[in-house]
């Protein structure tokens, strides 16, 4: 199932920044065409698109709201029209318990944008429903091109939050547990040439953290280590291109534990790599890159919100 990405085509949602941008950049540097689907591009992503608008491997950007299923369908249509066959799909767009869709700020409260009569949370639409629908669309495309025998890959973004519990981010935690379940449930697709895997990053230095002072309060810079988007992107590329991945990020020498890559594989990415087992897993623990040591201030804020009169009740 290992697949050289050179000459192939990938769709990466959320690649306007962060982990998904790092993955898209690695793909293009290794000769893979990439369609970036996102609401907007940060400056570094704009540079990538402009730099690779022409050449043997190209990047195109399609503005996309991943919570809109019609727009998700259009990115597959656009990629097929632009590049032909699609080989890799990463439904990576996600958000980390933003104030506008947040368990502790229920629908109808400020600053939530979730309507009390809407019947949905934007956080769930982005983090769970979008990856599910994008996976269906990817499988449909792959089946259409099944006759040529080329292996296909779907790489999801989970989190150490898919193994643990965080009081300050209940919906986010639930969404990442859901992604782990989805990936494992689809493991047998490998029997028809489609490998579904995921990375489960630790604390990553991306705009999901750095643009949000309320989340940065959880980081103790004297003890907590950041994992970089590039380190996670390296493991994502390895999930596609290799049948074994070393516990040492970026290592190709065979040192350290080697994890067999197959359908359903979830690799935790801290400052090292390890496989997340389905049963009796040891958990992320306090490995460097997995810790956000100071949750007290954010948890206190959650309790203060709970103490507000009428918390959680609809204003209808």
What CATH first level would be assigned?
A: Alpha Beta
Strand content: 5-15%
For this structure, the CATH topology is Rossmann fold
CATH superfamily descriptor = NAD(P)-binding Rossmann-like Domain
Architecture per CATH nomenclature, i.e. the level-2 architecture: 3-Layer(aba) Sandwich
SSE string: EHEHEHEHEHEHHHEEEEH
Task: List how many beta strands DSSP finds.
Answer: 10
Please give the alpha-carbon distance between the first and last residues.
Answer: 53 Å
Low-confidence stretches: none
State the helix count.
Answer: 9
On the 0 to 100 scale, the average pLDDT is 89
Range of helix content:
25-40%
How would you describe this structure to a colleague?
By secondary structure, the chain is α/β, with parallel strands linked by helices. The chain has one domain (9-306): NAD(P)-binding Rossmann-like Domain (Rossmann fold, 3-Layer(aba) Sandwich). Helix content is 34%, strand content 15%. The protein is built from nine helices and ten strands. It has helices spanning 18-29, 43-51, 69-83, 122-144, 170-185, 207-210, 213-216, 229-241, 296-306, and strands at 9-13, 33-38, 59-63, 88-91, 152-157, 194-201, 244-246, 258-260, 266-269, 273-275. The protein has an eight-stranded mixed β-sheet with strand order 3-2-1-4-5-6-9-10, with helices on both faces. A two-stranded antiparallel ribbon has the order 7-8. Helix 3 runs parallel beside helix 4 (122-144). The longest helix is centred in the middle third of the chain and has 23 residues, at 122-144. The N and C termini lie far apart (53 Å). The model has no long low-confidence stretch (mean pLDDT 89).
């Amino acid at each position: 199932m290992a697949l050289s990405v050179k000459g192939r085509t990938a769709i990466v949602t959320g690649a306007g920044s962060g982990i998904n941008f790092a993955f898209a950049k690695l793909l293009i540097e290794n000769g893979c065409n990439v369609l970036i689907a996102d609401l907007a591009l940060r400056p570094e992503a704009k540079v990538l698109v402009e730099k690779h608008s022409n050449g043997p491997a190209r990047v195109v950007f399609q503005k996309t709201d991943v919570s809109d299923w019609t727009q998700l369908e259009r990115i597959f249509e656009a990629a097929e029209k632009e590049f032909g066959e699609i080989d890799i799909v990463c439904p990576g767009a996600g958000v980390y318990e933003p104030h506008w869709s947040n368990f502790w700020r229920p629908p109808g409260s400020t600053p939530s944008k979730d309507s009390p009569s809407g019947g949905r949370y934007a956080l769930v639409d982005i983090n769970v429903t979008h990856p599910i629908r994008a996976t269906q669309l990817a499988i449909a495309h792959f089946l259409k091109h099944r006759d040529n025998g080329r292996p296909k890959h779907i790489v999801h973004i989970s989190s150490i939050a898919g193994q643990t519990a965080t009081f300050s981010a209940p919906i986010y935690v639930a969404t990442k547990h859901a992604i782990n379940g989805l990936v494992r449930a689809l493991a047998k697709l490998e029997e028809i040439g489609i490998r579904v895997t995921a990375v489960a990053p630790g604390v990553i230095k991306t705009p999901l953290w750095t643009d949000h002072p309320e989340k940065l309060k959880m980081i103790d810079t004297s003890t907590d280590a950041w994992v970089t988007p590039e380190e996670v992107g390296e493991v994502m590329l390895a999930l596609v291109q290799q049948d074994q991945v070393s516990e040492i990020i970026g290592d190709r020498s065979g040192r350290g534990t080697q994890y067999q890559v197959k359908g359903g594989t979830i690799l935790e990415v801290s400052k090292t790599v390890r496989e997340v087992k389905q049963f009796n897993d040891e958990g992320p623990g306090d490995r460097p890159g997995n810790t956000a040591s100071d949750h007290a201030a954010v948890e206190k804020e959650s309790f203060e919100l709970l103490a507000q009169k009428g918390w959680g009740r609809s204003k209808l």
